[in-house]
UniProtKB/TrEMBL annotation:
It comes from the Bacteria. The keyword Transmembrane helix applies. Keywords: Membrane, Transmembrane, Transmembrane helix. InterPro entries: DUF2085_TM. This is DUF2085 domain-containing protein. The chain crosses the membrane at residues 20-45, 66-86, 92-112, 132-150, 156-176, 196-212.
């Protein structure tokens, strides 16, 4: 567990005063990071199982605007307590992270699909705008889970957040690899292998940068 915490420390400050404690145990990530990555995982899972695993269309305009507004609101939580608009605390950080992560996944997966699969234009039936409420309802359930003082709640949030962290780095790096110029037919195994290798290279460089962050070394 110590090695996992050391790896997670590359992407999260893990400050005890900003980390949820459930049943006497601190979660592996701070409250905001827990919310971001758990919400991201939940939102990706909803899109996957609702038929959107290869969808390239962004959410319909009403859902797009509401999701963007909620995501921006989650991001502004960093500043709202200082402006006296919102109470500070770990529950607020968890809620803000859940909003941000859930909204981010609704935008990222269609963009990822468009570049990764490169199937060209195809007819798609967009889901009803009201269906985009489901991932946010799921995020609300995760928020309630954070107030349940039981070891099972802590383990579930920890697993969700770590899996979400892995998933978001995987998708972003595969997306970057898919943007590189390539030759060969789309969908070929060789082309997919090159993308995977490029994504792993990007991930390795990111880990090295986070591990030997020159800005953090200067600040220290």
């Amino acid at each position: 567990m110590a090695r996992i915490n050391n790896l997670l420390a590359l992407v999260c400050h893990q400050r005890p005063d900003r980390t949820l404690s459930i049943a006497g145990a601190l979660l592996p990530l701070c409250s905001r990071c827990t919310g971001i990555y758990a919400g991201f995982l939940l939102s990706i899972a909803w899109q996957w199982f609702s038929g959107g695993r290869r969808r390239t269309l962004l959410p319909p305009r009403p859902a797009l605007e509401i999701s963007a507004a909620l995501g921006i609101l989650g991001g502004l939580e960093v500043f709202l307590p200082g402006w006296g608009i919102m109470a500070d605390g770990n529950p607020a950080r968890l809620a803000a992270g859940l909003l941000t992560g859930t909204a981010l996944a609704l935008f990222l997966l269609p963009v990822f699909n468009r570049f990764f699969y490169q199937t060209g234009p195809r007819k798609e039936r967009p889901p009803r705008p009201t269906s985009y409420a489901f991932p946010f309802l799921g995020a609300a359930l995760l928020f309630r889970l954070g107030s349940w003082n039981h070891p099972a709640a802590g383990r579930l949030l920890a697993v969700f957040s770590i899996l979400g962290l892995i998933l978001i780095y995987l998708l972003i790096n595969l997306l970057l690899a898919s943007m590189l110029p390539e030759t060969g037919p789309a969908g070929s195994k060789r082309r997919a292998g090159r993308r995977l290798l490029a994504a792993l290279l990007f991930l390795g460089l990111e880990i090295l940068f986070l591990r030997f962050n020159p800005l953090r070394l200067l600040a220290g």
